């Protein structure tokens, strides 16, 4: 979380920094700031809120600068806690968490140094000043040797007016070479005009000076090859849609179509197919929405391939000492490829002998550098914080893997069963007006619940997450049979409960739970293609979806749930693209 951009070159730095920060705002929008090196030293401009609040900084003079958009970890969102932090001859922006900052801060205080913020990041500026003896790179190396945790750092020193310095440890940092200068950034969209990129690895440093880029590790200067990178032709635009989230939901059919893969017929996956033939056990590690796609994959893999699958929240994986047996395949799922907990889980699995497969939407991410194999979803850049099309794309790719595993084990399965889904998604999207009518029921509720059985439970989990993260309405997703084991105590008159029903064989079981809700005065919204159940008295309203292959139905059934979250968010006066306290890419533990 948080975004970094730095620039040194021939053009004015401030407009470059502001444009880069706008492209990184999905990483955090509590506060933002820039520092530009001018003739009289650093000029720092920081504001609470979004990058647009920095508009007044666009005229700052100077051709070297650093900027930051913040998602608060240590210290409340405020101008004082916003980056950059300046101390002595150094200005610093930081992504990550310095875990030993309390002891470092005490050490600085004992020397009489005064801190102006509550952040862990300010300690970096103090250490740089303490270790500086005329060589900023040496001071940066000594400083980083004292830090525990994760960091991406962009640094300016007053004695080096046209230079930038950077360092990375478990938080991404990219160097870009453009026609008019050199860039540092936490993510490629910030420097979209640069066709030549370099990825820093953990423990590496960089010095940008004039037209030259020099890379270092702990032992000295190193050589790095540029990474192949196709820059975006243009930043994503909302077009006729009022929000990116709505636009991205309408892009689901394309994302699904482009993420279905026939592994068997594509020679590029020959080695991957050989691994699938040897696989005896599968572990899926992921967080949030990606975790829900992993649960859906578990149902599909176990039913199609008859292989045992374990799905674990990535932040818990390392701490329970997972058992990784022979021929274990670990699927690490992350939209951004920068989810810190998922990367750490993948690294542990790899060091323990598992074959690690990264499933991500973005090339050149930290996760792709960790994995043995990389499988890309092709959802395109997703700007809204709440995942929509990326979830559907993950399902399409994971279901493709499930089919490939089944075929590798001689089970009956065929990729053709996924091919109708893009068209079916287009039909499902026609639910928008119907769902919009139902949003007021949820907008004025105290809480909401989502229930389903089997694969419908996966959709319930994701629907609940979408609702709570952008509408701020307390919500939970449950297996339909679990209501009577405690949660039913929370259902009272007019409590909205969404029931997902796509499996005919389980319809009566799910409707039993619907009856239990109805008997307590709750209002049931049914999402189904089985119209005969929608006519029952227990159902207050229903949203039709197309009939499809039941095992893969979450690709469709989640669409009206995403729509419900969107329209409820609007009804409650929220910005669905930028929910409070959340950011798109979770790069800290």
Q: What would the keywords be for this entry?
A:
Glutamine Phosphoribosylpyrophosphate, subunit 1, domain 1, Rossmann fold, 3 domains, 7-stranded antiparallel beta sheet
Structure description:
With 589 residues, this protein is α/β, with parallel strands linked by helices. The protein has 3 domains: 3-222, Glutamine Phosphoribosylpyrophosphate, subunit 1, domain 1, CATH 3.60.20; 236-419, Rossmann fold; 429-589, Glucose-6-phosphate isomerase like protein, domain 1 (Rossmann fold, 3-Layer(aba) Sandwich), CATH 3.40.50.10490. Helices cover 33% and strands 24% of the residues. The strands form 4 sheets. It has a 7-stranded antiparallel sheet with strand order 3-2-4-1-10-9-11, with helices on one face. A 7-stranded antiparallel sheet has the order 5-6-7-8-12-13-14. A hairpin with a 2-residue loop joins strand 13 and strand 14 (220-222). Helix 12 packs antiparallel against helix 18, helix 13 packs parallel to helix 18 and helix 14 (432-443) crosses helix 18 (554-571).
Write the layout of secondary structure elements.
Layout: E1 3-9, H1 13-23, E2 31-38, E3 41-48, E4 64-70, E5 85-87, E6 90-98, H2 101-110, H3 122-131, H4 136-146, E7 149-157, E8 163-169, E9 174-178, E10 181-185, E11 196-199, E12 205-209, E13 212-217, E14 220-222, H5 244-249, H6 252-259, H7 270-278, E15 281-286, H8 288-305, E16 309-313, H9 314-317, E17 328-334, H10 340-351, E18 355-360, H11 366-370, E19 373-376, H12 389-408, H13 421-428, H14 432-443, E20 448-452, H15 455-471, E21 475-479, E22 496-501, H16 507-519, E23 523-528, H17 531-534, E24 539-544, H18 554-571
Parallel strand pairs: 15-16, 15-17, 17-18, 18-19, 20-21, 20-22, 22-23, 23-24
Antiparallel strand pairs: 1-4, 1-10, 2-3, 2-4, 5-6, 6-7, 7-8, 8-12, 9-10, 9-11, 12-13, 13-14
């Amino acid at each position: 979380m948080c975004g970094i951009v730095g620039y040194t070159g021939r053009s004015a730095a401030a407009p470059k920094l502001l444009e880069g920060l706008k492209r990184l705002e999905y990483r955090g929008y509590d506060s933002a700031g820039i520092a530009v090196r001018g003739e009289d030293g650093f000029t720092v401009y920081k504001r609470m809120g979004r990058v647009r609040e920095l508009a007044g900084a666009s005229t700052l003079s100077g051709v070297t600068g650093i900027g930051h958009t913040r998602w608060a970890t240590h210290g409340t969102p405020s101008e004082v806690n916003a980056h950059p932090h300046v101390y002595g001859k150094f200005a610093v922006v930081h992504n990550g968490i310095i875990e030993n900052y309390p002891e470092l801060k005490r050490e600085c205080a004992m020397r009489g140094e005064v801190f102006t913020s509550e952040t862990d990041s300010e300690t970096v500026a103090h250490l740089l000043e303490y270790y500086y003896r005329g060589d900023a790179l040496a001071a940066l190396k000594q400083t980083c040797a004292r830090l525990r945790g994760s960091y991406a750092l962009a640094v300016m020193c007053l004695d080096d007016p046209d230079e930038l310095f950077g360092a990375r440890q478990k938080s991404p940092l990219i160097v870009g070479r453009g026609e008019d200068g050199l860039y540092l950034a936490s993510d490629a969209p910030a420097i979209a005009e640069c066709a030549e990129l370099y990825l820093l690895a953990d423990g590496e440093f960089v010095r940008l000076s004039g037209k030259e880029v020099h890379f270092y590790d702990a032992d000295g200067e190193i050589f790095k090859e540029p990474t192949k990178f196709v820059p975006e032709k243009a930043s994503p635009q909302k077009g006729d849609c009022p929000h990116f989230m709505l636009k991205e939901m309408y892009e689901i059919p394309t994302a699904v179509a482009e993420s279905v893969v026939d592994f068997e017929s594509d020679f590029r996956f020959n080695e991957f197919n050989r691994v699938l033939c040897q696989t005896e056990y599968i572990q899926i590690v992921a967080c949030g929405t990606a975790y829900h796609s992993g649960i859906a994959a578990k149902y599909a893999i176990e039913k199609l391939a008859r292989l045992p699958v374990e799905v674990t929240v990535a932040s818990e994986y390392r701490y329970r000492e997972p058992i990784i047996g022979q021929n274990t395949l670990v699927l690490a799922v992350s939209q951004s490829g920068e989810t810190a907990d998922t990367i750490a889980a993948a690294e542990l699995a790899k060091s323990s002998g598992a074959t690690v497969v990264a499933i991500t939407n973005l090339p050149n991410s930290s996760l792709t550098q960790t994995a043995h194999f990389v499988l890309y979803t092709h959802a395109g850049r997703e700007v809204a914080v709440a995942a929509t099309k990326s979830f559907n794309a993950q399902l399409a790719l994971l279901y493709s893997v499930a089919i490939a595993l089944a075929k590798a084990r001689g089970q009956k399965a065929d990729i053709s069963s996924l091919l109708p889904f893009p068209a079916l998604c287009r039909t499902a999207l026609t639910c928008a007006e119907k769902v919009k009518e139902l949003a007021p029921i949820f907008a004025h509720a105290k809480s909401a619940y989502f229930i389903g059985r089997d694969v419908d439970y996966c959709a319930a989990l994701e629907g609940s997450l979408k609702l709570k993260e952008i509408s701020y309405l307390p919500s939970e997703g449950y297996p339909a049979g679990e209501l009577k084991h405690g949660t039913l105590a929370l259902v009272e008159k007019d409590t909205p409960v969404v029931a997902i029903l796509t499996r005919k064989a389980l319809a009566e079981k799910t409707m039993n739970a619907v009856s239990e809700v109805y008997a307590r005065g709750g209002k049931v919204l049914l999402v189904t293609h089985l119209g005969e159940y929608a006519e029952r008295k227990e159902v207050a309203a229903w949203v039709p979806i197309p009939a499809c292959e039941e095992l893969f139905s979450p690709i469709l059934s989640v669409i009206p749930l995403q729509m419900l979250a969107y329209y409820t968010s609007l009804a409650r006066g929220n910005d669905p693209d930028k929910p409070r306290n959340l950011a798109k890419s979770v790069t800290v533990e």
